[in-house]
Design a protein that fits this description.
GO biological process, one term: cell division
CATH architecture of one domain: Alpha Horseshoe
Shape: rod-shaped
Radius of gyration: 49 Å
Structural class: mainly alpha
InterPro entries: BamD-like (IPR039565), CpoB (IPR034706), CpoB_C (IPR014162), TPR-like_helical_dom_sf (IPR011990), TPR_rpt (IPR019734)
Keywords: Coiled coil, Signal, TPR repeat
Protein name: Tol-pal system protein YbgF
Strand content: under 5%
Number of helices: 9
CATH topology of one domain: Serine Threonine Protein Phosphatase 5, Tetratricopeptide repeat
Order of helices and strands: HHHHHHHHH
Distance between the termini: 130 Å
CATH class of one domain: Mainly Alpha
Largest sheet: none
Length: 280
């Protein structure tokens, strides 16, 4: 603008000095210079707008590059997650297959025991005479307490009969679940381990969340150990850990599994042959 003004001043001075320019020509020159002034302002504004657009395009380009890099990083992470998910899925399917196999073996074993024990029993030579109706207890709590006294005195058959009486005649008794559990205990103490397993299993089916459930499942596994069926016992102990991980029975089950594995490893160790010395 300074240059335009200087030029304008110079032109005016020249014209005045020369005295050759008419008034009309002078006005035309002033009009042309004013037009140039306006066009120059418009050009400056366009240049400013163009610069703003270039800056915005540069910023957008930088953002696009950063976004592209972020997308590539995210894509790489996603691919890693997909691979990890596939590995975990494979492990889960393998564990599910193994667990289903173990539980099927256990169910088959229990069904086999149940079929064996539901066969008609031979009548015993000595049978306890039935109590007279007037001698029978009517209060379920009294029957329950009497059964526990029999347990302490190792009269397991008598105790079992009283627990069974509670189950049969007093379905609303508050200690009914305990009666199912103690029936299993009577069989276990009599070393009737197959009957004990079925009694514990009946209790667990009815009351899987009862406070005595971890103990019942643990004793079921120990009964299989007593039957020399360590493979099934290991499956039962694993169920204890899976179902009741925070219980003391889970700790005992872990110890029992370690004992079973140790016994298997010792059975696999080859025996050293002792070379006999020959006399010369």
């Amino acid at each position: 603008m300074k240059k335009i003004r200087i030029a304008f001043t110079g032109i005016i001075a020249s014209v005045i000095l020369s005295g050759c320019v008419t008034t009309g020509e002078f006005e035309q020159m002033k009009s042309d210079i004013a037009r140039l002034y306006v066009e120059n302002n418009q050009l400056k504004q366009e240049i400013s707008e163009l610069k703003t657009r270039v800056d915005k395009m540069s910023s957008d380009l930088s953002s696009a590059v950063a976004l592209k890099e972020g997308q590539l990083t995210l894509l790489a992470q996603t691919q890693d997650y997909v691979k990890e998910l596939q590995i975990l899925k494979g492990r889960f399917e393998e564990n599910s297959f193994q667990n289903e196999k173990k539980f099927k073996e256990l169910s088959d074993k229990i069904a086999e025991l149940q079929a064996k024990l539901t066969q008609p029993a031979q009548p015993s030579e000595k049978q306890q005479p039935a109590k007279a109706p007037e001698e029978q207890l009517k209060d379920p709590k009294a029957i329950y307490d009497s059964a526990h006294i029999d347990m302490k005195n190792k009269k397991f058959a008598s105790a079992r009969e009283k627990f069974q009486e509670i189950i049969k005649n007093y379905p609303d008794f508050e200690l009914l679940p305990n009666s199912y559990f103690w029936i299993g205990e009577t069989y276990y103490n009599e070393k009737k381990y197959e009957d004990a397993i079925l009694a514990y299993e009946e209790f667990l089916k009815r009351y899987p969340k009862h406070e005595k459930a971890p103990g019942a499942l643990l004793k079921e596994g120990m009964a299989f150990v007593e039957l020399k069926d360590k493979k099934t016992a290991k499956v039962v102990f694993e169920r204890v850990i899976e179902r009741y991980p925070q219980s003391k029975e889970a700790e005992i089950a872990q110890q029992k599994i370690a004992e079973i594995l140790k016994s298997w490893n010792s059975d696999k160790k080859p025996t050293k042959k002792v070379k006999s010395k020959t006399k010369r």
